[in-house]
Amino acid sequence: MPTIDPAFLRSVSLFALFNDEEFAALVPRLRQRTFEAGHILFQQHEPGGEMYIVQSGRVELFIQDRVGEKVTLGVVDGKQVFGEMSLFENHPRSASARTLEPTDVLMLGRDDLTTLIYTYPNIALRMLEILAQRVRTTNALVQDRVVTNVNDVIEVETTLGNRISDFITNVSGNMYFVGFSLVWFIIWIIWNLGWIPGAKPFDPFPFGFLTVIVSLEMVFLSLFILIKQARQAANDKVRNDIEYEVNVRAEMGVRDLSKQVEHLERLLSERLPPSEAPRNGREEVGSLVTQSPWDPSSSSRQ
Fold it and tell me: Is 129 contained in some domain?
């Protein structure tokens, strides 16, 4: 049996409400392990089945995105729990875990937790409370999440030629440019019609030189406009990709938490007597979940 300080277990939020009898049943099922810095506890997509409780040290949770880049989800330190999702669903790991320094952990397997829940149904209620808190935390994270700034991405990908094209199209696309062109054409025509005393015409009617300048202006402005439209289409794609990624991550997080709550509710309903199940089971689960403002049905599907 591992030597575990009861005060430490009570400081872990998942076990804070356990009584002495439940602790006595829990401690023999926990396994203590020590890992060196840089050790991979588990990889994304590997089969799960164990939950980890950090006694000391720090553990980094991360995933690989669609382009193969590492995305850090968070860092878990003392008295925190991770990997609990694998206890409630028979699916591969949704993230990877790596120790950042020498780390001591306690490990609890799925079979051990299931036995505890069948023996002490109140444990399921304790875990439902923790999962409900996770739902609210996820909601706050989604609302306040710092995502990639589309403007920063666009600015990084902007070249000198694109900046020149933007400047020219911005200048030529306002009423000041229209007014300037109108005044310039009028002065040009009046000058070359000989209506200004002492001003010698340099482009007499039918104003061939003016026609060439205006034609070249139209050609180049058309090219710059096409370049900006192509860039705008690319920028819109970047913006849509980022918004889609945020929606997918939000839906995945809420769906995973919902599955955990449903699994615990099912275990609790099977264990409690029929007369107590509505009062202690489904109604309490519903009250916990409905505290969250998030509505999973409103999420867009991937």
Answer: no
